[in-house]
UniProtKB/TrEMBL annotation:
Name the UniProt record assigns to this protein: Cytochrome c oxidase subunit 3
Boundaries of every Heme-copper oxidase subunit III family profile domain copy: 1-118
GO BP of this protein: aerobic electron transport chain
Pfam families according to UniProt: COX3
Family: Belongs to the cytochrome c oxidase subunit 3 family.
Domain of life, per lineage: Eukaryota
Principal subcellular localisation of the protein: membrane
Source organism of this protein record: Mytilus trossulus (Blue mussel)
């Protein structure tokens, strides 16, 4: 949006470039967080209906984020070459509309998959001063990441979870 406003206002200095760079960085960070989440999940696509729906919805959304990030990179290159002007910038505008659509889809997915079905409304994890992790709804339960932290002090990239081994 900031890049679009800068182009329409005939501000061709650094405004649109910074706007696109920040958005591209957000897309890359989102993708890396999603990959990390897939790696550390305690359930797989074949465990349950929730697992299947979770991986299907978030996987399709992640693919759309990758497509949008690539499109943003192409738009940044076109902007850098001076192909956009205040009168001629439909390619950038279409890219921005697509990115906002992906944003709205993510907010909806987060509300449905993580909050409603995932139990985040009831399972707020908190860590006490003694290092234990508790939940309001399930006092004896531990989050999926807790077991990995308590097992051993090996870097996450060093040990492959058993479910991913062939």
């Amino acid at each position: 949006t900031q890049a679009h406003k800068s182009i329409r206002a005939k501000d061709y200095d650094v405004g649109p470039i910074i706007g696109l760079l920040v958005t591209i960085l957000c897309g890359i960070v989102f993708f890396l967080v999603q990959v990390r989440e897939y790696y550390w999940n305690s359930y797989t696509i074949s465990d349950s209906v929730y697992g299947s729906v979770f991986y299907l919805l978030t996987g399709f959304h992640g693919a759309h984020v990758v497509v949008g990030t690539i499109w943003l990179l192409v738009s940044l290159a076109r902007l850098w070459r001076g192909e956009f002007s205040s009168q001629r910038h439909f390619g950038l505008e279409a890219c921005i509309w697509y990115w906002h659509f992906v944003d709205v889809v993510w907010v909806t997915l987060w509300c449905v998959v993580y909050v409603w079905f995932g139990g985040w409304l009831y399972m707020w994890w908190f860590k006490t001063w003694d290092g234990n992790v508790y939940s309001f709804k399930y006092p004896d339960a531990k989050p999926s990441w807790y077991a990995y932290i308590q097992e051993e002090r090996v870097p996450s990239w060093y040990k492959v979870p058993d479910r991913l081994k062939i």
